[in-house]
Amino acid sequence: MTVVTPVTFDAAPFLSFMPMSLVYAESGVILSIGPTLAKLRPAKELIGKHVAEVFTVRDNGRGQGNCPIPLDTKLYLKFRTGVNTRLKGMAASIPGTGVNILNLSFGISIVDAVADYRLTAGDFAHTDLAIELLYLVEAKSAVMEETKQLNARLQGAKVAAEEQAFTDTLTGLKNRRAMDHVLARMLRTQVPFALMHLDLDYFKSVNDTLGHAAGDTVLQEVARILLEETRNDDLVARVGGDEFILIYTRFTDKMRLLHTAERIISRLEVPVPYQETFCRIAGSVGITTTDYYKKPTADGMIHDADLALYSSKYEGRAQATLFDPEVHHEPPGDTGASAFP
Amino acid sequence: MHGMINRAIQCFMRDTYGEDIWEKVAEKADLGFDNFEAMLSYPDQITLDVLGRAARQLHKPVETFLEDLGTYLVSHPNVEAIRRLLRFGGENFTEFLFSLNELEGRARLALPDLEVPTLKVAHIEDGRFRLSCSSAMPGFGYAMVGVMRAMADDYGALVFLEHQGWMDSGEEIITINLLEASYTEGRSFELSERIGGEL
């Protein structure tokens, strides 16, 4: 068996082919290193050291034993000190020389490594795909950034469009469509709530005598009052020219509801200044709550709140009436509902 | 949680249990929208709500739901891209297992925003491995059990997997017993999608 001393082995061609490689004696002592590896750690820090001192080495459990590092298998390495760049590698023995060569590559750490060690195209072997990979990563990131911004714009536009579709533009309140939506959801999730139907009185005469601009001012003032008389979880919708529906979430106490409605009505009666004059309106309210029903439905509740509202109108307006099944569900003809025009 | 993950949960439910089951879950979780978008991000709580609702809707423990999700991700033709990306991990099941160590880094190269769980695979003794998994999503380890079981089938390996529960640190531990590396032929895989395709 011939043993060639390591000194006689000329590593230069190998190191120029594989600038990230190092040559080490079978004992594990590093003899020479490639030019790119020298950019990661100065040659004087590596040469003469044992490979296991410099790197932690892990393999998939298939490498040949009895060597400082397993040969002929995929290796995962990390520097023991400094920036702990992860490296991929493979080691092989060069027959007849008594030395081994360990070739290294960055694998997934390439993007960080290029920055950490200020590497340039010249640091990679001409056959290495590193530059193509970096190119792809950059191109992908640029496209991704554009896509991300586009997504954000589209998402913003979508939210705005949905918001618009659910909003009454004059008052900023929700519209009928939004109310249907919310009502359906609350019934589905069986949240107890009260439904209040408010109809403005004398609004038509404001419109007729002072014009639509006056009417608009009044509606905006009404909206302001209604928002003040509801909480964040509640809903105020303008469902017709001068009709509003208020939904009070988890609030079904009848006396307190009547009290709230009466307070709203009295606030509506405060004259609204418009130019040189004042607009005077009033409001009538009908109220129902989910407590009245075994299986509440949107149509049924809106209908019953309407019946109660008609009673309020019939009783002389500017009133609030609670739905009462005994009174309002009498056979037709006996109730205020049919009597009211 | 990244839209990709939420989207995957939605696709799993849609493809496995039907559109109407997904709609019910979306409604119960009170999402306020019908579909997750893969390229948007969502608060973590939404994902947890959807998982909880989905498991309840299907009368399954969340763990089982997640494991089935993992299996789906690898084996359903609608999400073939995921199986292909995982097969890039190696030529056999052992190499695949070790490639999980690099999954986080690889995913970051592709999608820097995607929060992939940190996976660590270690060899314990002959044919026995240990995977530790730490993730923002508790129970992700169960999804990994599903993924690994389906990948074992893909490679044709015979494995026995066991979720060992949680460590105090929140890490989940799974042990993998590789009983036979080539038990069946497995599914074919070509690096090029153009050549690939099933027999």
Q: What is the CATH C level class of the largest domain in chain A, in words? A: Alpha Beta
Whole-number count of domains of chain B: 2
Q: What sort of overall outline of chain B do the alpha carbons produce when their principal axes are compared? A: globular
* Rg over alpha carbons of chain B: 17 Å
The biggest sheet of chain A amounts to: 6 strands, antiparallel
Helical percent range of chain A? 40-55%
Measure the end-to-end span of chain B: 37 Å
- If helices are DSSP runs of H or I spanning 4 or more residues, what is the number of helices of chain A? 13
CATH architect. name of the largest domain in chain A: 2-Layer Sandwich
Widest sheet, order of strands of chain A: 2-1-6-5-4-3
How do the helices and strands follow one another from N- to C-terminus of chain A?
HEEHHHEEEEHHHEHHEEHEEEHEHH
The count of β-strands of chain B is 4
Task: Give an overview in words.
The complex is a heterodimer of chains A (341) and B (199). In chain A, strand 8 (235-240) and strand 9 form a beta hairpin. Chain A is built from 13 helices and 13 strands. In chain A, strands 2-1-6-5-4-3 form a 6-stranded antiparallel sheet. The longest helix of chain A has 36 residues, at 130-165. Helix content of chain A is 41%, strand content 22%. The model of chain A is unreliable at 333-341 (pLDDT under 50). Chain A has helices at residues 12-17, 37-40, 43-46, 51-54, 110-116, 130-165, 176-188, 203-210, 212-228, 254-268, 298-314, 325-328, 336-339; strands spanning 21-25, 30-33, 55-59, 75-79, 86-94, 99-105, 193-201, 235-240, 243-249, 272-274, 277-279, 282-289, 320-322. Chain A folds into 3 domains: 6-128, Beta-Lactamase (2-Layer Sandwich), CATH 3.30.450; 130-163; 176-339, Alpha-Beta Plaits (2-Layer Sandwich), CATH 3.30.70.270. In chain A, helix 8 (203-210) packs antiparallel against helix 9 (212-228). With 341 residues, chain A is of the alpha+beta class. Chain B is α+β, with helices and mostly antiparallel strands. Chain B has 2 domains: 3-60; 91-180, H-NOX domain, CATH 3.90.1520. Chain B contains 8 helices and 4 strands. Chain B has helices at residues 3-17, 19-28, 44-57, 62-75, 80-87, 93-99, 103-110, 140-155; strands at residues 118-125, 128-134, 158-166, 172-180. In chain B, strand 3 and strand 4 (172-180) form a beta hairpin. Chain A binds chain B through residues 60-62, 74, 76, 86, 107-109, 111, 137, 140-141, 144, 147-148, 151, 155, 185, 188-189, and chain B through 27, 30, 37, 39-40, 94-95, 98, 101-102, 105-106, 108-112, 123.
